[in-house]
């Protein structure tokens, strides 16, 4: 893959009639309509982004298969992060079937929506995390600050599993709030584990109305300080992003946030890290 390629490491598609998007309440009515590749492709061209990683938005294998079908028809989709029930003893068989499609890169349990913070530490889940690692797959960790401690413990139990923290673990920063020492120390603990990486994504939604690059800087600077550019990757979280802004605003803010990085570091954050983590290939 050429060094100049930029990758959006986190975006979504959905087709509402499929009927398994349980989180789509009236609170997200503005994005509760079909979102498909034809709507994203012009934005990628405009911002010179060569490829994406599409991430699950429903807790069903059927949705993963839907995303894999989109990847077959659209070369810019370089990888798919799907969903498998990691508490199911039969999960390895499902993984084997999904792995027949080379676009399948990993799994994301919707941990933020599970009431039990320690769900991921169950023996059955840990066994399936080892099954993920054994198949060359990765874990996207959709977590909030309450999960940082248990995620670190599980990462230590399964050191062979590559893990990426989505959306910087969703720090509580709405209204200009400080993300807090628990978040800072939890992220630093995870960054000490070499197989753990972090996505700089989703922060506009966490900050809410009136967000700016300046308001997000304390979070981004801490992530880059802990993980370094070689273990940080940029993502848009489009179209969820549209609840708080748009693709162009996020790209412009990101350019400001990364301005102090070297050219090599910016290449890593904007594509190199994601390409290496997910094992992406050029279109």
Describe this entry's structure for a reader.
The protein is an alpha/beta fold and 283 residues long. It has a single domain, classed as Alpha-Beta Barrel (TIM Barrel). The protein is built from 10 helices and 8 strands. It has helices at 37-46, 61-73, 91-98, 123-134, 148-157, 181-191, 203-207, 213-227, 247-257, 263-278; strands at 7-11, 51-55, 77-82, 104-107, 138-141, 163-165, 196-200, 232-234. An 8-stranded parallel beta sheet has the order 1-2-3-4-5-6-7-8. α6 (181-191) packs parallel to α8 (213-227). It is globular. The model has no long low-confidence stretch (mean pLDDT 97).
Give the helix level as a range of percent: 25-40%
Biggest β-sheet: strands ordered side by side in the sheet: 1-2-3-4-5-6-7-8
* SSE pattern: EHEHEHEHEHEHEHHEHH
In round numbers, the mean pLDDT is: 97
Which class in CATH terms? Alpha Beta
Query: Which fold name corresponds to the CATH topology?
Result: TIM Barrel
Report the total helices. 10
Which of globular, elongated, flat, extended, rod-shaped describes the shape?
A: globular
Do you know the CATH architecture? Alpha-Beta Barrel
**Oligomeric category:** single chain
Structural class, from helix and strand content? Answer: alpha/beta
- Could you list the spans in which at least 5 consecutive residues all have pLDDT below 50? none
Number of separate strands: 8
The major beta sheet can be summarized as: 8 strands, parallel
What is the CATH superfamily classification?
Metal-dependent hydrolases
- β-strand percent reads 5-15%
* Tally of discrete structural domains: 1
First and last CA, distance? 9 Å
Radius of gyration of CA atoms, rounded to a whole number: 17 Å
